[in-house]
Specification:
Largest sheet: none
Order of helices and strands: HH
Shape: elongated
Number of strands: 0
Number of helices: 2
Radius of gyration: 38 Å
Oligomer: single chain
Strand content: under 5%
Length: 84
Amino acid sequence: MVRPILAGPSLPEVTMAPKDRLKELFRAPAPLTAMDRTTQEARQIVSEQTERRQELTASLRAARLAKEAADAAAPAKPPRKPKK
């Protein structure tokens, strides 16, 4: 005859770890070194310069295209006669 287990050693209750415990599981990121900060600043400066250069190129291209369109619409000057 098999007896049912009515009382016995209780099992530990399984719960999810709170987020605070998970923070201890991973290392904190290392602070930025002087070289990292310099690299970050240099990349920012280069990207700003690239953006300005692209804006200037776009505006100069638009001005050139407008000038070429105006020159094409104007009648061409007759060629000069060579001097003798």
